[in-house]
Amino acid sequence: MSDKITFMIDGVEVQAQPGQTIMVAADAAGIYIPRLCAHKDLAPFGSCRVCTVLVNGRPQSACTQPAAEGIMVENNTKKMTKMRANLIEMLLVEGNHYCPYCEKSGNCELQALAYRFGVMVPKYPFMFPNRDVDASHPDILIDRNRCVLCARCVRASRDLDGKNVFQFVGRGPEKRVEVNANARLADTNADVTDKAVDICPVGALLRKRVGFEVPIGKRLYDSKPIGSDIEAQKGA
Amino acid sequence: MGKPKVATTSLCGCFGCHMSLLDIDDRILKLIELVDFDKSPIDDIKEFSGRCAIGLVEGGCCNEENVKVLQSFRKNCDILILVGECAMTGGIPAMRNTIPLKECLEEAYINGPTVHNPSGKIPNDPEIPLLLNKVYPCQDVVKIDYYLPGCPPPADTIWQALVALLTDEPVELPYELIKYD
Ligand code: SF4
Ligand code: SF4
Ligand code: FES
Prior knowledge:
Chain A is an alpha+beta fold and 236 residues long. In chain A, 21% of the residues lie in helices and 16% in strands. Chain A is built from six helices and ten strands. In chain A, strand 1 and strand 2 (12-16) form a beta hairpin. Chain A is globular and about 50 Å long. Chain B is built from six helices and seven strands. One iron/sulfur cluster binds next to helix 4 of chain A.
């Protein structure tokens, strides 16, 4: 079809529909571009920059940047992987991430990205920030120690659940996810069946009483790196 | 004689990482063919008897004694390896890092719901190592050469890393062995 866009990712020819982002086109071609804030059911947000690729040599976030005819995209190169690993390491030291007792461990996208990039330990000093937990709701809890400010919950509650339970408050290091109520999560109309609850990539928004249900070895990223599902599409 | 020496220590850890080292099972016999153990809880040698090729450190630094031991490991070992999450992130003991030390001690010795302490005093004997204001990852205190993450790192991780170092091969762990839990 003539309205198809053709461009290159790491020397491989990829096709896109007009208006598609680089990430969506790459997914369809079985090329994994690492990501954290992007989610297939949500509009792109472009906050984490983990998906940064070089488009004709310039850094762009692949989850927001539309594919264009003839562009040259650098994705899976040493330089980009290093940069992404640095971003992941900064996110790890900026919060309080103790994977050994985190319910999300093994199913966590932040941790899985660190595994995929071979991060043994962040090279930056841990900041040990003081952050709040809101466990007031009978079925859901917010642990801000692990929040990466991806806004998936904000977008999902607003766009998928039609509720607007979550919102960001503050700026810079003070920025945090808050609830749409005077006080606590329990005072909102959040419900455990909300799409927003399961969409958190990390262990910041959790269902209660299901932690550690899946045994070690059987969890999402125990044996296969994050992105393997997309890469398995290649040539399919 | 002539075998490289290995020293190990548990700082602010639970000895789980040492248990994981013992979990290499009968490969421990092969390990003893390859190395001699120096200062280590495994053979109960308390002081360094000479230069060590490899030092394995479990646990982070929560008190001044931990810092001194860690510094002596750096001084006496050619290669220093952190074993397990507590050594490289502070781990579970670092939960106290967001609470002022005074509050932690008051909760533990005075205000806690199960505390029985008629004297109402917080222990302060000079024999007890002084607590640091927070728990420090070891790489914040001395230079570290290798990191083996996990809680604890699987026996295979420790084994593969040790064998690689002792045979001059690069330490490269497969995906399944890089885990933080
Ligand atoms: S949210 Fe992820 S990275 Fe953070 S502690 Fe939990 S498993 Fe580890
Ligand atoms: S709670 Fe989870 S989904 Fe919401 S912003 Fe934080 S990390 Fe993202
Ligand atoms: S995935 Fe693109 S910026 Fe987060």
